[in-house]
Amino acid sequence: MNRPDAPNELAITFFYYHDLPAAMQFYEDVLGLPLAIDQGWCKIYQICPGAHVGLVDEAKGMNKWAPVKPVQLCIRVPDVDDWYAYAQAKALDKLSDLFANDALGIRAFVFNDPEGYQIEIQTATRPGA
Questions:
Q1: Of 42, 16, 43, 18, which is closest to residue 31 (Cα–Cα)?
Q2: How far apart are CA 118 and CA 129, in angstroms?
Q3: Does residue 128 share a domain with residue 91?
Q4: Residue where a domain terminates, one of 62, 92, 108
Q5: Same domain (yes/no): 36, 87
Q6: What is the pTM of this model?
Q7: Which pairing describes strands 72-76 and 118-124: parallel, antiparallel, or unpaired?
Q8: CA-to-CA distance for 35 and 98, rounded, in angstroms?
């Protein structure tokens, strides 16, 4: 049997939370992501066309909240400097310095969301990076 060859419709990465309303407020008010799908105990936000993050109440989801978060949500933006100034003004948790990674061709910074998921905001510094 062959793998289906129909194009994918969207991608969703799910994060699990003790306090879903606090996570929702952060992703809506701080990151400015629009709510795309409301499933009650799961809220799916659009990052950009085709890419989404799902915030799940860990009491009802398929997985549970864990204190260690070995995952990072990376969002590429046109101007990392504007976003960094905004992040500084918001005094985001565990905000890093703005850094360049010449090997990857990016400038970026990281911070944590309300329950410890790391978010990276980056801009490409060369075509194809």
A1: 43
A2: 21
A3: yes
A4: 62
A5: no
A6: 0.93
A7: parallel
A8: 28
Helix (H, G, I), strand (E, B) or coil at 17: strand
Residue 1's CATH number: 3.30.720.120
Give the count of alpha carbons within 13 A of 13, CB side only.
11
Please tell me the distance from the alpha carbon of residue 57 to that of residue 72, in angstroms, as a whole number.
19
Count of CB atoms within 10 A of residue 94's CB? 11
Helix, strand, coil shares of the chain as percentages rounded to 5? 15, 35, 45
In sequence order, the 6+-apart residues with CB closer than 8 A to the CB of 12 are: 44, 52, 53, 54
Residue 25: the pLDDT is 98
Cα(120)–Cα(125) distance, integer angstroms: 15
Q: What is the pLDDT of residue 64?
A: 92
Q: In terms of residue numbers, what domain contains 32?
A: 1-62
36-65 residue pLDDT tens: 999 999 999 999 999 999 999 999 999 999
Measured CA to CA, the distance from residue 64 to residue 38 in angstroms comes to: 20
First to last CA, the chain: 36
Q: Examine the pLDDT at 8 and tell me if it is beyond 90.
A: no
Across residues 4-21, what is the average pLDDT? Answer: 94
